[in-house]
Amino acid sequence: LPSLQPPWLHTLRSWRCRTQRPWSYTDPSQEQDVVERFTWVSILFGAATSYVHLEKLCEGSCATVYEGISRINGQLVALKVIRMQAEEGVPFTAIREASLLKRLKHANIVLLHDIIQTKETLTFVFEYMHTDLAQYMGQHPGGLHSCNAMLFMFQLLRGLAYIHQQHILHRDLKPQNLLISCLGELKVADFGLARAKTIPRQTYSSEVVTLWYRPPDVLLGATDYSSDLDIWSAGCIFVEMIQGQPIFAGTSGTHEQLVKIWAVLGVPTEDTWPGLSKLPNYNPGWMLWLPVPSLLSRVPAAEDLASRMLTAFPRGRISAQDALLHGFFSPLPPQLYQVPAEQSVLTVPGVRLQPEICDLFASYRKGQLSGGSSKFW
User: Fold this and answer.
1) What crossing angle do the helices spanning 146-165 and 228-243 adopt, rounded to 10°?
2) Which residues are in the Protein kinase domain (predicted)?
3) To bridge 197 with a disulfide, which of 41, 134, 167, 265 should be the other Cys (CB 3.0-4.6 Å)?
4) Distance CA 104, CA 224 (A)
């Protein structure tokens, strides 16, 4: 009977239709065979048989992420499979990530559903998100709609303000680690490099954050950074959303990365950055005079917010909480500031993702070719 079918079967059929996979269940006996393989009987959270792997989404040096389906409730999920070390067992970064994620309950932090451990792997089960910001920007070249950049940035800062209040540093913010739902919800993901910030101040590794999003103080060897580390990365992402390309896209290492930063912000001195010359990797020969072009000029108030986030002197950077109050976000409804932490800002009336220009153009072209009419304004 249909009512006795496992809850994931309907999701599986919808997924096959949505992704247009090469095989389909046109033969009833073939579908029945799959149902029998994944019979929904006595399945519990934490069991390796609780989830059906569908498709590999990405692969890193120590983990692979799959799209999957929960056989318990039929929900689509993301499965981050971490391979065990032959002699060391569970990687310490995975233990730290699990420990931190269990503490974080916020609408703009990816939700951890389950943890599964076997002899060979450790699997984190996350809520499923449609895409990530890097893919979204790749699909919409030339810069995002200003309203969408504003909405994404507000959600990013909202998530950052929360984790910083919890004394946690993400340490690896980049577009690939910002997940987006089909409705436009943005969630911070991948806490593999995250650390709890303890008191008194302690030192950390300077080998953190992908090069393009690494602040100049860390590039120069600083190890006593704080939440200002994440603010710099968020500022880089902000400019990239508006301009359509990374602002500091170095290719040959630390020296070139610093030169690209100085070319935009100007060369710092001891007057503008107290303690600069005492940093481990400081080299006076790198401090050449360079012109200072404008960061952002086509979006009102965006340049001021970007400049407050992308300040070379780390203690001079704006906090995530203060950035949320910046005038750049004044067009957004004031009700956004009353939304509970566990609730999405998209629940506020009128707050929604806007069609990107290239999407509108593609729809217009499609209408023209089909002989139909399309009006967008």
Assistant:
1) 170
2) 51-329
3) 167
4) 24
Three-state secondary-structure class, residue 112: strand
Question: Which one, of 362, 5, 354, lies nearest residue 147 by Cα?
Answer: 354
What would the two tokens of residue 166 be?
Answer: 């919890």
239 and 296 Cβ atoms separated by less than 8 Å? yes
User: What band does 77 get if pLDDT is binned at 50, 70 and 90?
Assistant: very high
Query: In terms of C-beta density within 10 A (0-12 exposed, 13-18 middle, 19 or more buried), how is residue 331 classed?
Result: exposed
Pairing of strands 131-132, 186-188: unpaired
Note whether 146 and 242 are within 8 A (CB). Answer: yes
The Cα 233–Cα 261 span in angstroms is: 13
Active-site pick, 114, 172, 217, 228: 172
Residues 12/30, Cβ–Cβ less than 8 Å: no
Q: What is the pLDDT of residues 189-198, one digit of tens each?
A: 999 889 887 6
Amino acid at 166: Q
Coil, strand, or helix at residue 212? helix
Q: Structural domain boundaries of the chain?
A: 50-128, 131-347
Tracing tokens 């300040």 back to the chain, one arrives at 311
pLDDT digits (tens, 9 = 90+) for 13-38: 665 555 555 444 444 554 554 454 44
Q: Is 172 a catalytic residue?
A: yes
CA 263 to CA 286: how far, in whole Å?
A: 12
Kindly report, residue by residue over 263-307, the tens digit of the pLDDT. 888 888 899 899 999 999 888 776 555 555 555 655 668 999 999
Give the CATH architecture of domain 50-128: 2-Layer Sandwich (3.30)
Query: Using alpha carbons only, what angle is made at residue 72 by residues 120 and 188, rounded to the nearest 5 degrees?
Result: 70
For residue 356, give the amino acid letter. E
20 burial class (0-12, 13-18, 19+ CB within 10 angstroms)? Answer: exposed
